[in-house]
Amino acid sequence: MSKAIPGESPAPIPSNWSVIVQADLAASDIGQHLRQRGVKVKRAESVLSGSIIFPRCKVAFMVLELSRHLLAQFLDWHNESTAKDGEKHCPDQGTDMDVNAPGACKDKRDVTGHDEDDDAYRTMITRVDKFTRIHRDCYILLQAPLFTERELAFLYQLQTRYMNMMSVDILICHNAEECVSAMMTISNLQTPPTSDKLHQRFCYLMNELVEPLSIEELAQIDQCEGGGF
Asked: From its record, what is one biological process in GO terms (predicted)?
């Protein structure tokens, strides 16, 4: 009987899987790494830019590359906001506050700290908003070679925007290979039989917290699972 190895990676996704990838992304390094993993890449023009969909496990990913242009605009806002922080205080606004009321804040920047007139940001955030509305289980992959204070500040503001959305998770990746590894791992964990085994183990764990299992029951569980994935 084989034994589970701590930290062992899940089994790879079967090579007969098909993944829907946005056309431009399919021709990039991400599409190449997917093909190297034996995944069939289907190009699609109709999906949102940066989108990768795994139909079998019903999970979708969006890759956002933190370009120099976008980060430069974010840094400009951050410096300007810091400079004005001691000059004028804008009160917190709830969703029911009238922005036209006297004393209301007129700053056009939203919760992520960007100017809504910024075309690059507006395009990006509109795309992400639409992506999160379409897919019930989705992940945002922020890709940057190095995550300095500037990139982490951008990450924090994006997390703040989608904090109340349980269906969205945000991950950071340094390159295309890390993006593909993250997508393959998440998709595999959410696909039978791996997902079924994880569910069973979670149920056993919850039952054990309430009533400890006997040695015979633990042995039976290990025998049924084959000692691992």
From this structure: reciprocal meiotic recombination
